[in-house]
Amino acid sequence: MYQRPTPPTEPAPTAGRRRFTRKALLAASALGVVTALLAPVRAGAAPAPAPAAAPTAATPLAANGQLKVCGRQLCNASGQAVALNGMSTHGTQWYAQCVTDGSLNALANDWRADVLRVSTYVQEGGYETDPAGFTARAQKFIDAAHARGMYAVIDWHMLTPGDPNANLARAKTFFTAMAKKYKDHPGVLYEIANEPSGVSWSAIKSYSEQIIPVIRAQDPDAVVLVGTRAWSSFGVSEGSNESEVVNNPVRASNIMYTFHFYAASHREEYLNTLDRTSDKLPVFVTEFGTQNYAGEGANDFTMSQRYLDLMKRKKISWTNWNYSDDHRSGAVFKTGTCNGSNWTGTGVLKEAGVWIRERIRQ
User: Fold this and answer.
1) Distance between CA 29 and CA 22 in Å, rounded?
2) Which of 36, 132, 168, 223 is the most exposed place for a label (fewest CB within 10 A)?
3) Is 195 an annotated catalytic residue?
């Protein structure tokens, strides 16, 4: 029921010493240029004036360098808690035309986003139909985000079937390729299972404990994001709660757990779950919307703001669904925008786009 259906024209949905790698050097180099800016705005500290030879403004990636999990927080290279805010692409098999130089310039410079989540669907006309092609496409978008100083979440967008083990072999191939390419880059986070559903936490945990070593074999430093039961709701949408994860966590370090919500559908029980769980586990909200669970219908900005206020107070990172011109209310651009060349300002945005752009800019 949490599947976001496609438009009629689309296919129907069915702890040791860190290595001193080039990644560390890249991060150190970036941080050396912006020493005065190590505490980003989202960490609550106003940046000091930059040295004369430094850029007038640091990008999120340059300011923060290699991310890591410290306690229950996402932290930057200097160990300060940070919260990344940004957008998720729609499925790149449908909306690649919405991820362009122009749109990413707007996201980085006009929206002032920290992060782009690149969503590679596994089924529904996605990765399984052309593994090499969709791997290359994802890498193109990740590289473009990096070039603009944004982080990238590499989203393995498994949805149907809901058991991530159904795509275990494909996931191993995909994440091996990704980790090999980005092992020396500080700008990636690996989201290994988008929205598991109809499957036990123990099965998701088993999958995670098989995929994480695949990534770590190539890239031991990057943060890994683990999907949770019942469409990444910590089990709430299937009658459970976060206790199953708290009592039986994935056996790996430097990981966070994902939580998704759609404010018009997911009310107090979900908000309270996010609040409780983030006191016990490191959480990253890799997907949310201001509409119902299908990304459709009226926007509930009041409930959405309650979530954002909580996430700001607790420094929980988030990416909003989605950066496209899909006809649904959850797509930020007005239909047809991706066929043009104007991406900046509010004139090209739907109501949800105007609202979320302002929150990211804040």
Assistant:
1) 10
2) 132
3) yes
